[in-house]
Amino acid sequence: MIALGLVLNTVGIGLFCWLILTLAVYALPFFVAVSAGVAAFHSGAGILGAPLVGIVAGGVTLAIGQTAFAIARFPILRAAIAAAFAFPAAIAGYHVVFAMSQLGMPSLAWREVFACLGAVFIGGTAWTRLAVLAEPRPLESGRVVPSASPAGLSAATHDG
């Protein structure tokens, strides 16, 4: 029974870590959604309107961020957009790792060390995921560059 508990704890912690790293890129849209939802609630949107405002604001933030990252040509602008997504993820990562380290580590100094390392890793993960999710698309004078057809398809159509 103890072995089953150890295995399930390991799987649960691994699943929690995977979830944190997967959702790291959505920290900025989540913060925007919560802020917009609370502001809408306090301005009189009601219980049904405030979550809708928050969901729309978070989705728009994510879409604008990924589109701007994909369209931006200058590396400094791309880095600024990625940093806007990575910094809230790093802050959230710091607090999550600090809270998790309180479960098994009595030393405050080591908790701070692990929390800082967690912030760096989770912020870097958000930076990388944004770069992967929003691949730059080549543009040529306002229109999309046509993609070249694979050689195998053109040879098969000519052989007939």
What would your notes on this structure say?
The protein is an all-alpha fold. It has one domain. It is 78% helix and 2% strand. It is built from six helices and two strands. It has helices at residues 2-22, 27-42, 46-71, 75-101, 108-133, 151-159; strands at 139-140, 143-144. Strands 1-2 form a two-stranded antiparallel ribbon. Strand 1 (139-140) and strand 2 form a beta hairpin. Helix 2 packs antiparallel against helix 3, helix 2 crosses helix 4 and helix 4 packs antiparallel against helix 5. The radius of gyration is 22 Å and the shape is globular. The chain starts with a helix and ends with a helix. The mean pLDDT is 82.
The gist of it:
The chain is an all-alpha fold and 160 residues long. The chain has helices spanning 2-22, 27-42, 46-71, 75-101, 108-133, 151-159; strands spanning 139-140, 143-144. It has six helices and two strands, in the order αααααββα.
H-E string: HHHHHEEH
List how many beta strands DSSP finds.
2
Q: Which stretches of 5+ consecutive residues score pLDDT under 50? A: none
**Rg over CA atoms:** 22 Å
Number of domains: 1
Derived from helix and strand composition plus strand pairing, the structural class reads mainly alpha
**Secondary structure: helix percent:** over 70%
Main beta sheet, described?
Answer: 2 strands, antiparallel
Spatial order of strands in the largest sheet: 1-2
Residue-averaged pLDDT: 82
Shape: globular
Number of helices: 6
* First-residue to last-residue Cα separation: 66 Å
| Percentage of residues in DSSP E strands | under 5%
